[in-house]
Amino acid sequence: MKEFIGIHDKYRFEIKLNLDDRSSYKFEYYFFIPESLNISYYTYDKSKFYSSLHQYIRYQTPDVDFYLLFDTTNSISPINRIMTYLDKLKNSTDRFVEERLIDEMKLFGCIVREKIRETNTASLLSLFSSIDESIEKINRIVHSYNYNKKIVDAFRYIDEYINIIKIERLTELAKDLNLDETLKRKFEDYIDRSFKYIDFNGYKKILPDEIDHFLYHRSLLKKFVSSCLFLRVQMAFDFYHHLISSIASALAMLFAILVTIYAQKKYPLESALFIVIIVVSYVFKDRIKEFSKVFFSKLVGDYIYDRKLKIYEPVHHIKIGYIKESFSILSKDSVGSDIIRVRNIDNFDVIDEDAKFEVVLKYKKIIYLNRNIIDKYHTRRKNLVSILRFSIEDFLKHTDDAQIGYNLFYSGKKYTFVGKRNYHLNLVLKSPGRDRKMVYKRYRIIFNRDGISKVENILVDGGDV
What we know:
Elements: E1 3-7, E2 12-19, E3 24-34, H1 46-52, E4 53-59, H2 66-69, H3 78-88, H4 95-118, H5 124-142, H6 149-174, H7 181-201, H8 211-226, E5 232-236, H9 239-266, H10 272-300, E6 307-313, E7 318-330, H11 337-343, H12 350-354, E8 358-369, H13 371-377, E9 384-391, E10 403-410, E11 413-420, E12 423-432, E13 438-448, E14 451-458
Antiparallel strand pairs: 1-2, 2-9, 3-8, 3-12, 4-9, 5-6, 6-7, 7-8, 10-11, 12-13, 13-14
């Protein structure tokens, strides 16, 4: 299972895991956070953790061969399917076919975007020529018949987004000082034609004084095109969580009732002892309720969770799986020895272990996917990616200033240094491999009050312990 970790923005890091063809996955994330940041049961709860967590699950962009992509006779080519659906809609208004058509247009945009990113410099203009030819074919058909506005607008958005991606890719390459001058001029000419294309079609102009609005518009286009790859996640009713809470409440209430009956038989209602017993039983009732929740949670293991999310296939609106999640704050003594070993694998001496006081957050996620449904509806979109983005903003409240001064007097001269006051969040990921042997990953997120500065992938003895 391949993974990628990196900085998503100033305060969030992102982990991408390429899921293989299994139906179920179990991930455990252990966040080792410096104790000085004041993270505890009293200052950080489940609601704060889940508000910091943003996760997606989506299909990988299908890897379609260059020639097959633009081959209109190839059944898996989006171009072929777009033409087929357009032909079906010439004399009908089948809503399902319309949705499939727009989905294929989006998929074409996603595949083209990946091809533009991956294609080497020398072959780029050839790729653009094939893209332009296909876009022109679709454009002629779309504007030759009385298709509804939704189809026409969808095509315009995808055409506009592809044109922007081409401009951005060529602009990036045109800055290369080692680029052949002849090729550079060809790139610049193509960029000029692309800007004229924007004007001709009335697309959003890229102007310095309107750059904020353009970037917002570009973001909308990107989300629209990419939506064909993202699965829809919806909160589900967590039956087991409510069942455990109900049983715990029932046991606590039973205890309180039995104590009350006993006290009524033993002491008068107005006596001080009766009042003391009732008050004590009320206090113990709450503790019994919380203890029972923990006890039953351990018994049912994977069946208990904080929340359950249903996964839906967006085009056909069919449920294809679910995600179950749970969160807890652990003491270091309650963390497994395998996790502690991975956490300390790069420690050098006693100062590394004895001077690092940390709080441990545990996040468990179980993903189940119905592969039969996925195989039934998709021949190209099969491989999935689990994406987790986490914000560190709640950890910054008790950090020191991002920059600190340090003075040193040496050999009669004063030296002043300015350095960064950094903190380390160590993240251990545990998951079972194909052979059920546990696989471990370790990451170090380096940050300060100004945000994340670096993310490191720490090697863990080939990935297992």
